[in-house]
């Protein structure tokens, strides 16, 4: 499937910005990608219901590549808490598989769009509030991390995000320093993405109204362009995370998220 030059440019810009944000905030970029991919697919003649689902799945697929690029940069700085990755990853895989193989296919795209809007709005509010955790609070034991990972993986599978909007607040709430939380969230993006992408690919095999060059719910042309650009900028975002005032940047990004949440709510309510 040949893409028009303007479409390639749009997807490339989306990949550049989402990759940078993935490295900077540990969010995987999905919160930014899903609304824009939904709009792009709509212009390609894909129904609103299917466009939302394909945007979520395609966004998640790009995170497989972005997370690797981002975590390498964070790891070089010794910021990744690998013991937390090992504790949270099993639950993430289980939760992601449950969402992408089961619940995702059963829900209507309009319902997913509204859920996405509510989830993004909640995440943006958490960014603004930036509440401080109780000094004595620590990460839970293995059972608690397994459960926490399950929630992160499940929510990520429904909204097409790398889990940073759940895992970063969760870890900072447990007094993990913000730079370690962002770096660890970037590392968690890979198991989140793999578990969900397998589910999206399998769940969408029986669909007949998919656009050309689709693999299940995943739109391969968008995946290729966005991934190629995002892997270049994710390390730059990771570097900036250790140099820029992340808290101020989070509030700026939260303002953008409110606009994107409003757009997705409108798509869900009007479809």
What share of residues are in beta strands?
under 5%
Residues in helices, as a percent range: over 70%
Main beta-sheet annotation: 2 strands, antiparallel
Number of helices: 10
Task: Provide a compact summary of the structure.
This protein is an all-alpha fold and 271 residues long.
Core attributes:
271 residues, mainly alpha, 78% helix
Task: Describe the model.
This protein has ten helices and two strands, in the order H-H-H-H-H-H-H-H-E-E-H-H. It is mainly α. It has one domain. It starts with a helix and ends with a helix.
Reconstruct the topology from this structure.
Blueprint: H1 5-25, H2 30-43, H3 48-76, H4 82-106, H5 109-129, H6 142-159, H7 164-173, H8 178-203, E1 214-215, E2 218-219, H9 220-241, H10 246-270
Antiparallel strand pairs: 1-2
């Amino acid at each position: 499937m040949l893409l028009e030059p303007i479409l390639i440019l749009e997807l490339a810009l989306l990949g550049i910005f989402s990759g940078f944000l993935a490295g900077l905030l540990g969010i995987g970029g999905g919160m930014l990608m899903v609304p824009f991919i939904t709009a792009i697919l709509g212009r390609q003649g894909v129904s609103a219901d299917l466009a939302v689902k394909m945007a979520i799945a395609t966004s998640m697929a790009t995170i497989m590549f972005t997370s690797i690029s981002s975590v390498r940069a964070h790891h070089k700085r010794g910021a990744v808490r690998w013991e937390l990755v090992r504790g949270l990853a099993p639950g993430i895989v289980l939760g992601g598989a449950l969402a992408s193989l089961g619940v995702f296919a059963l829900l209507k795209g309009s319902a997913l769009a509204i859920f996405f809007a509510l989830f993004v709005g909640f995440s943006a509010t958490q960014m603004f509030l930036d509440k401080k955790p109780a000094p004595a609070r620590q990460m839970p034991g293995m059972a608690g991390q397994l459960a926490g990972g399950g929630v992160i993986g499940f929510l990520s599978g429904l909204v097409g995000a790398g889990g940073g909007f759940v895992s970063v607040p969760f870890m900072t709430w447990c007094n993990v320093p913000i730079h370690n939380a962002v770096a660890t969230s970037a590392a968690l993006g890979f198991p989140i993405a793999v578990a969900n992408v397998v589910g999206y690919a399998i769940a969408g095999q029986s669909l007949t109204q998919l656009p050309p060059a689709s693999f299940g719910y995943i739109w391969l042309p968008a995946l290729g362009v966005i991934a190629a650009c995002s892997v270049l900028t994710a390390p730059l975002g990771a570097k900036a995370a250790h140099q820029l005032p992340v808290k101020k940047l989070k509030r700026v990004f939260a303002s953008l998220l409110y606009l994107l949440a409003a757009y997705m709510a409108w798509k869900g309510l009007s479809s």
